[in-house]
């Protein structure tokens, strides 16, 4: 029953806001410059922290610790760690350590670094890229490079969550260094995975400062409707010194845990980021969850809400008297607590109440996209969330709107890759993203691509950007913006709007020529259409463009074509074309050669009733009908039929794949169409042994020939792959003619071919 309710809930919420979950604009390195730094070698894990200067960061990876200065690359440095320690200790393991912990200490003048070679974790304290004096890593650093094990270094104390043993059964919360001494948590038999750690404070009474750990653990409830994993928040007091000799000695006396809730079945915690406020109660926790179906949800909590649960909730499974005995406040010396109090602290640690998110206890955002990391940035008075995707992209989401508004999708990497870490630099509004081989710096104040007009800049709703009267630039008190609503009318009210003149191009085409018009998709939230002679024509969407296919140029296709976008009530002409028909029929006369199907459609052919597939036609066993490659029609001299047995395998033996031959002039524009027969198949084009990407567009796989040349000559095959079965759906042969520019000569056969293929579907 719970599963049904959840599916109904997701259907209602995700469909209503799916439009807004798509990015309004997509930015690649062609649109904005990304600064890159290639890492030496391949790194399984990369730890990132801010450097001493605004333009640099520290990167811990495989064997090395690097300082990368993106402003002055010649100042970048790299050192190899733990080689000396490994040789001195004569360990049997490899000396190739992967850095797993990286912190700045002593006001940033020194660094604390830990790493592991898979057998022995090692830690050291060092001056900035200086000498490294090693120390024991017991309970500090993980044995495995794949163990997340978040840690926190605050006020000369190190809080860790690493596994104590290589076997993986000693996960716990520990404090190292400092005046209050070493302390840890009891062994837990339940499998746990820590995700993040944050300080709750500073509070008015510094004695009450706490540390919060965010984690997930295997659910002990084996009910069929129960989640396999549950997420929790664990709190400890910074002032905790542990208990007495017999009860909780060197163990946390202030440890309490509460269930972290983010909607039905979103029980697995992936990542957490905390945005600290002046008042600690207003600090916000942004948490990324997933469910068994791979969907993602973002929930937002406040430190005040978490604190309220720990202070006011009853303890789970405890008697009424225990509620009064167990203290909720942090104490100066926990070793002086009464024995009865310590016993209650040992026996009862889980709260009865759950920690619920803001906004009516529901997720702020639910998405089918596979987000991996979440980072929150304050752009006063707004909040922007940066969510990394498993494809190597990063989406920027406005965190205060309902439904969520995806401002942009940033694509810093040229190829699909796995993002390992994301770091924000608030002082410079930069973001750093790392993979196994490089680190990229993204400037969040690059605003020019959000629009060349005030209306476009305002509708972008990017808190980092505003219109200054001439361009979209970094926001200031003098710029125009409307982040909450994106109302373009604020431009007119501010007197900063100018009429936009769309670029216009004239093309002269021969009779029956094929052509396509391209219009850039400036906004993923706008609706697009073409206007021709007062009629609105549908837009064919394909990879960042709105296409209009001219399949058969005649006098009716002459005239002006305007590509119009509509968003939030604002209509804008993006580009204009004028098509003219060449009236000299002796020049540029189209020529066509076809090889199957036949040039005419049979009239009232009784054979079509047998079916729209070769298999159906053959199994009809009608001697007067056969399959001609596109339809069941009157028998010919080259029949595909088996009247005696009706064996459909003769279809495969005949291999009747539709084929077209087209003659094109030099630099001509052309398009090849292939029907999408199955929504589960993968489609591509094959040309001269190379696989070309398919442009999906309204039931077809398109291939655009933008400038016909000798390199484009040859055979083109449209291939579908599904369940291991490969199939050639249609073939073309393109030939180059030395005729006038703009000629394309496959119009009429192509129309017939597509008509036949539609019947096949």
UniProtKB/TrEMBL annotation:
Q: What is its main location?
A: membrane
This protein's source sits in the domain of life called: Eukaryota
One matching Pfam family = Sema
Q: Which GO terms describe its cellular component?
A: extracellular space; plasma membrane
Under the heading InterPro entries, the entry gives: Ig-like_dom (IPR007110), Ig-like_dom_sf (IPR036179), Ig-like_fold (IPR013783), Plexin_repeat (IPR002165), PSI (IPR016201), Semap_dom (IPR001627), Semap_dom_sf (IPR036352), Semaphorin (IPR027231)
**Which family is this sequence assigned to?**
Belongs to the semaphorin family.
Show the PANTHER family listed in the entry: SEMAPHORIN, SEMAPHORIN-7A
What is this protein's record name? Semaphorin-7A-like
């Amino acid at each position: 029953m719970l599963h049904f309710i959840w599916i109904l809930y997701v259907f209602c919420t995700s469909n209503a806001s799916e439009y807004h979950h798509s990015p309004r604009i997509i930015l690649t390195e062609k649109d904005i410059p990304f600064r890159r730094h290639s890492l030496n070698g391949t790194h399984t894990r990369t730890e990132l922290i801010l450097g001493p200067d605004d333009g640099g960061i520290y990167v811990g990876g495989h064997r090395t610790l690097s300082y990368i200065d993106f402003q002055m690359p010649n100042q970048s440095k790299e050192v190899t760690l733990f080689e000396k320690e490994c040789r001195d200790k004569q360990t049997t393991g490899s000396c190739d350590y992967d850095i797993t912990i990286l912190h700045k200490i002593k006001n940033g003048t020194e660094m604390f670094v830990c790493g592991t070679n898979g057998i022995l974790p090692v830690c050291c304290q060092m001056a900035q890229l200086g000498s490294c004096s090693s120390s024991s890593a017991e309970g500090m650093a993980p044995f495995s490079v794949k163990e997340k094990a978040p840690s926190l270094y605050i006020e000369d104390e190190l809080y860790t969550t690493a596994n104590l043993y290589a076997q993986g059964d000693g996960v716990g919360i520990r404090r190292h260094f400092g005046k209050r001494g070493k302390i840890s948590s009891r062994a837990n038999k339940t499998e746990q995975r820590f995700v993040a750690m944050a300080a709750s404070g500073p509070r008015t009474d510094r004695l009450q400062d706490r540390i919060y750990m965010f984690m997930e653990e295997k659910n002990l409830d084996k009910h069929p409707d129960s989640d396999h994993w549950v997420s929790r928040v664990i709190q400890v007091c910074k002032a905790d010194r542990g208990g007495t000799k017999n009860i909780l000695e060197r163990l946390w006396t202030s440890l309490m845990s509460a269930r972290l809730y983010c909607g039905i079945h979103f029980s697995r915690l992936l990542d957490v980021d905390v945005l600290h406020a002046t008042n600690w109660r207003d600090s916000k926790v942004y948490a990324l969850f997933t469910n068994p179906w791979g969907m993602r949800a973002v929930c937002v909590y406040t430190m005040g809400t978490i604190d309220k649960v720990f202070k006011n909730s009853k303890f789970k499974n405890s008697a009424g008297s225990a509620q009064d005995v167990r203290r909720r406040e942090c104490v100066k010396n926990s070793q002086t607590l009464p024995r009865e109090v310590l016993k209650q602290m040992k026996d009862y640690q889980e709260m009865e109440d759950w920690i619920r998110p803001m906004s009516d206890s529901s997720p702020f955002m639910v998405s089918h996209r596979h987000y991996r990391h979440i980072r929150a940035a304050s752009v006063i008075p707004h909040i922007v969330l940066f969510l990394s995707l498993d494809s190597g992209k990063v989406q920027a989401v406005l965190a205060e709107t309902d439904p969520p508004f995806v401002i942009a999708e940033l694509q810093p990497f040229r190829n699909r890759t796995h993002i390992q870490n994301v770091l924000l630099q608030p002082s410079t509004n930069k973001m750093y993203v790392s993979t196994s081989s490089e680190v990229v710096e993204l400037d969040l104040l690059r605003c020019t691509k959000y629009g060349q007009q005030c209306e476009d800049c305002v509708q972008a709703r990017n808190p980092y950007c505003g219109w200054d009267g001439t361009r979209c630039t970094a926001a200031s008190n003098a710029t125009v913006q409307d982040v909450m609503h994106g109302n373009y009318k604020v431009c007119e009210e501010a007197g900063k709007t100018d009429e936009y003149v769309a670029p216009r191009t004239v093309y002269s085409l021969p009779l029956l020529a094929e052509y396509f018009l391209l219009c850039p998709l400036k906004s993923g939230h706008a609706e697009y259409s073409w206007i021709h002679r007062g009629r609105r024509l549908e837009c064919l969407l394909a990879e960042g463009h709105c296409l209009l296919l001219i399949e058969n140029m005649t006098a009716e296709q002459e005239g002006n074509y305007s590509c119009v976008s509509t968003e939030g009530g604002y209509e804008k002409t993006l580009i204009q074309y004028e098509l003219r028909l060449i009236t000299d029929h002796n020049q540029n006369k189209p020529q066509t050669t076809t090889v199957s199907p036949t040039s005419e459609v049979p009239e009232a052919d009784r054979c079509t009733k047998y079916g729209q597939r070769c298999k159906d036609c053959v199994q009809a066993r009608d001697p007067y009908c056969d399959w001609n490659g596109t339809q069941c029609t009157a028998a010919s001299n080259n029949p595909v039929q088996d009247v005696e047995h009706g064996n459909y395998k003769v279809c495969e033996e005949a291999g009747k794949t539709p084929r077209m031959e087209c003659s094109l002039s030099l630099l001509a524009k052309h398009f090849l169409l292939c029907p999408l027969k199955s929504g589960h198949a993968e489609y591509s084009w094959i040309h001269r042994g190379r696989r070309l990407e398919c442009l999906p567009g309204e039931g077809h796989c398109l291939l655009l020939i933008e400038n016909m040349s000798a390199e484009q000559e040859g055979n083109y095959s449209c291939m579908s792959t599904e369940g291991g079965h490969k199939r050639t759906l249609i073939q073309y042969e393109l030939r180059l003619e030395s005729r006038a520019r703009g000629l394309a000569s496959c119009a009429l056969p192509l129309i017939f071919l597509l008509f036949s293929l539609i019947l096949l579907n």
